[in-house]
Amino acid sequence: MDELDKIDLSRLPTATRPLLGLTVLVVEDSRYACEAMRLMCLRSGARLRRADCLKSARRHLQVYRPSVAIVDMGLPDGSGADLIAEMAGAMPRVDVILAISGDDFAETVAIAAGADGFLAKPLSGVSLFQSAVLAHLPAERRPAGLRTVSDEIIVPDPVAYRDDMAHAADVLSDACDDRSIAYVVQFLSGVARSAGDSTLLDAADALAISREKGQPVQSLAASLAGLVQERLSERVAI
């Protein structure tokens, strides 16, 4: 049998679905951000699997090797840079390793850890998502010929945003140490930036600045918790 006959043509990338046949592991604790990437994968032909922390991601990687890994830099149980370094040094290596964060300074750390590229939050354009993946795929995995460029902007389900608020509320209720404060600040900053919630973003940034300066953060943390509760009580989150 000719080698071409062995190829499943239904899983080859096309101009309209350039990521067909790929499996994308998204390591992301935000349900809202993950929902956006799920929709982008759906539009692009890729299959998505999600892990919400380092422990879960490592469990996934023990079972299978994805074609693409997209890793959030701030996770509840550690830095995404650690997982990126592990995947970058593994044999065989994941074809494409991308970092994602709302913190621009995270790009340098991600690339130093071994990431092939960096995605800045908010990520909402299908074309940008596809281009970031395709730019680092081996030539034989890319669609032949011209690609249909989509200008579609992805808008995730608001329920996913509410889920993120519930998670943040749980963390804030027990945030009695600096590590918990640091985590919830970066989490809410990323979620608020992705959802265009400027009020919540400003509050998270104010808390981050006070924490970095070594100033008391209790009142700002309480204000942030109040904003989170407001969003939880609203019928439509955003």
From TrEMBL:
The keyword Phosphoprotein applies. The modification 4-aspartylphosphate is found at residue 72. It comes from the Bacteria. Residues 23-136 form the Response regulatory domain. This is Response regulator receiver domain-containing protein. PROSITE patterns: RESPONSE_REGULATORY. It comes from Primorskyibacter flagellatus. The keyword Isomerase does not apply. Pfam families: Response_reg (PF00072). PANTHER family: CHEMOTAXIS TWO-COMPONENT RESPONSE REGULATOR, STRESS RESPONSE REGULATOR PROTEIN 1. Keywords: Phosphoprotein. One of its GO terms (biological process) is phosphorelay signal transduction system.
